[in-house]
Amino acid sequence: MVLKKGYHCAYETHYHIVFPVKYRKVLLRKEVEVEVKQIAEQIGERYEVEFEQIGCDEDHIHILCSFHPKYSIGEVVRIFKSITARELFKKFPWIRKELWGGEFWSDGYYVATVGERGNWEAVEKYIRRQGKEPKIVQLRLF
Hints:
The protein is an alpha+beta fold. Helices cover 37% and strands 22% of the residues. The chain has one domain (4-128): Alpha-Beta Plaits (2-Layer Sandwich), CATH 3.30.70. The protein has helices spanning 30-47, 73-91, 93-98, 120-128, and strands at residues 4-5, 10-11, 15-20, 49-57, 60-67, 110-113. The chain has a four-stranded antiparallel sheet. Strands 1-2 form a two-stranded antiparallel ribbon. Helix 1 packs across helix 2 (73-91).
């Protein structure tokens, strides 16, 4: 972790953000995940957001990022959701057929700050492994 400097401040902020696909649809397939990561790179360059780790699990996404304090968490989430949704609808027309109402992401999100003294490696590993571990399926009696 490196101390970043703006014109009038120095900061070291890290956020773990999670939000689901609309209706919890299983749409974050491998090709969609790759595209989301490419779009995130472009967003990062334009808005000075450092996406340290992005992990997708079939129906939701985990993001570990850092950005200048001039942006609120809500602004960064809004920017990420709107740009990725627009670009994914352009690149993958089949997604629009799966969703109605023209929205890709659900309205809400989860956010937690990650402290510099916390177990940083554990958080990075957790996000990196999203969607990689086999799911445990509970058997039904009837």
